[in-house]
Every structure is written in structure tokens, then in C-alpha cells.
Amino acid sequence: MSTQSTSATEPSAQTATEQPLSRDDVFHLLQNARRRGVVRYLSERDDDAVYEMRDIATQVAAWENNKPIAQLNSDERQRVYISLYQGHLPKLAEKGLIEYNQSRGRVESTPRLEQLEAYVTTDTDEQQADSEPANAEDSTSLKYYSGATAVSVALFVATTLGLAPAVIAGSLATIITGLFGVTTLGVTSRTLR
């Protein structure tokens, strides 16, 4: 096999890396989960370091199989390793996102990789900030529905024991349905605000 390497000193590589990636290139590069995994792996680490392809393949396999690295079997590692070696890493190198020495199994990110990082990195603070309003809404909804359920159970028990007036006993289903209808309207109106 031939050695593929992208060097910043080559004129064609230099002009390619100076231009921003097109939308089509971004879409094409990120449409594959393993390429996204490589971009994620490199973007979560030191920009100036050189990484072993074996380590990248192992981490991508762990993410892909939703397992800790220690629980991966050799087939899971090998499938990812082969696809990265034969296709995905050469494709990323061709677009100037990484420097890939195929014969040595070494990978290094280039500044151009930053164009894809926003699509694969996760900021836990942003995720928590985005999920807090949803959790607050869920909490409010839970309180309303819990209250409606408690009132419904109390009415049912009172009616069953003969403690509720006869008027309530005859229309218990209507009262409970109305109570949940009003609760649903209240929760819906709060959500739409």
C-alpha cells in the first residue's frame, strides 16, 4: 500500500486548506458517524499532538458500541480500525482536516479541522442551560397533575365511603374529567407563553 500524507508545504494542499469548506463538503464529511467520531476525538484533545490511529479507532469503537474501552472485543475494534485506515482518515486528509501518515498510523489535526468542531463537540454547560427550562416546565406540569390526581382520589374515596354529597357522587366522572381538562389547559397555556 502507498503512504498517504498531507503536508502543509505542498502547494495544492496549502491552497485547499486556506479556503473554507463548502456546505456540501461539511455535509459529506460529517454524514458518517466514524468520521464524526474522529473529528470529535481530535477536537477534544490538544491541537498540536500527534495521535496513534489505533487509539482513535479504539475510542470511536467505544462510542459506536456504547461501551467502555475495556469492554470492547477485538472484532469491534478491528471493524472501526479498518474503515478508518482504508477510507475515513484518507478522506479527512484529502480535505486538509488532518495530517495522516498511513504507514506509521499517525494522525494530527490541522487548523482547518476547527471548521467541523462546532458540529461534533458538546458543551455540557450549554446542554444544562437548555434543559433547565424544560425541567422547570416538567416540574410545574407534574405539580398540577399531581394536585389534580390527589383531588380526584380524594373525591373518589369520599364518594365510595358515602362521605360526599349525593350531587358529587352522581357526577364524579364529569368532575374528574373536568378537573384534568382544566389542568391540561393551564399547563398548555403556561407552555405556550
Describe this structure in words.
The chain has 193 residues and is mainly alpha-helical. It has 2 domains: 11-120, Orthogonal Bundle (Arc Repressor Mutant, subunit A), CATH 1.10.10; 124-192. The protein contains 9 helices and 3 strands. The protein has helices spanning 11-18, 23-30, 33-43, 53-65, 74-94, 114-120, 124-160, 166-170, 172-192; strands at 50-52, 98-101, 106-109. Strands 1-3-2 form a 3-stranded antiparallel beta sheet. A hairpin with a 4-residue loop joins β2 (98-101) and β3 (106-109). The protein is elongated. The N and C termini lie far apart (62 Å).
Give a short summary of the structure.
The chain is mainly α.
Which range best describes the helical content: under 10%, 10-25%, 25-40%, 40-55%, 55-70% or over 70%? 55-70%
Shape: elongated
- Number of spatially distinct domains: 2
Largest sheet: 3 strands, antiparallel
Q: Classify the secondary structure makeup into a structural class.
A: mainly alpha
List descriptors.
193 residues; mainly alpha; Arc Repressor Mutant, subunit A; 9 helices; DUF7344 domain-containing protein; DUF7344; transmembrane; membrane
Describe the SSE topology.
Elements: H1 11-18, H2 23-30, H3 33-43, E1 50-52, H4 53-65, H5 74-94, E2 98-101, E3 106-109, H6 114-120, H7 124-160, H8 166-170, H9 172-192
Antiparallel strand pairs: 1-3, 2-3
Helix pairs in contact: 3-4, 3-6, 4-5, 7-9
